[in-house]
Amino acid sequence: MLFRRVWPSRPAFDHPLAEFDQLRREMLRMFDSLAGADGTIEPAAGVFPPINVTQDENNFYVRAEVPGIKADDLSISALRNRVSISGKREIPKEQQAVSYHRKERAEGEFNRTVTLPAEVAADRVEARYVDGILTLTLPKAEESKPRQIAVTA
Amino acid sequence: MKEATREIQKVEKGNLKSPEQTRPGPVYLPTVDIFEDESAISVLADMPGVKAQDLRIDLRENVLTLSAHVNAPESPSETFALREFESGSFFRQFTLSEVIDQAKIDARLTNGVLRLQLPKLEKAKPRQITVSAS
Question: What is the pTM of this model?
Answer without folding.
Answer: 0.72
